[in-house]
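Worked problem 6 (solution included).
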Amino acid sequence: MANVSNRTKGIICIILSAFCFSAMSSFINLSGDVPVIQKVFFRNLVAMFIAATTLAKNRERFLPVKGALPFHMLRTLTGLVGMFGNFYAATKMASTADSAMLNKMSPFFTLIFSAIFLKERIKPKQAIAIIGAFAGAMLVVKPTMSNAELLPSVAGFLGGMGAGAAYTCVRHLGKKGENGRYTVFFFSLCSCIVTAPYLIFNFHQMTKEQWLFLVMVGVCAAGGQFAITAAYTFAPSREISVYDYSNVIFTAISGYFFLGHQVPDLWSVLGYFIICSMAVWMFIYNNKEHELEKQKY
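Solution. The predicted structure is:
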């Protein structure tokens, strides 16, 4: 890949990340009636060992940079909210593609939280994209009492919100010079510590297949995290972020072929179209803004 541009490498990595997270959703679903908190524990346990091994191999420190600890703690809290919402939705919703799309609201929440906490101004077109994405999300959630999946849909939406807040913390940690691999390790370790007490007193016995599926959840999650970290190392978000939405395509395909011929309803498909359209619009807008900034200098 010596002659491949960094942008192309970034695109390849972010599509690989999307595939890994899609596979993770499928394995979450396949693991069946295992409690969500137990699924979260095993997902983070595997990721913790992989991150720790990577840090040790590269002889990197197992300590945060100065002043980063409070943001690591906040990232852990918001990340756990996002993960519980995402896992619950992936387990309970009839369509894993619906849960995946609700999780993809996170970039729009990142814009909102970055404006509130990092004082990054939201421009009018970005505000329109956020409103449009929320409208699309409501078509997926279908917030009526007649919707039997209202609770998991809301959980998926809140999962996207938690992920958006977590990414805002990660963004701030990156600005402070924190190592991305350590951020993965810290989050995974703290998540295991938080969820372990439940397992000590309420461990759900699992079949061999469920053990395998939960190990694969952790492997796919770690693969997705490291791939997306590599992607943003090769190229900035404005150039490659839109390709992350390939996750929904992968999830829809796996849902149809491996999870009982799952087919989203027409309202959900319309919601997908609106959210993805807003994401593509923001992608084009951000690139144009960057080009205008370059011309000024």
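Discussion: The longest helix spans residues 266-296.
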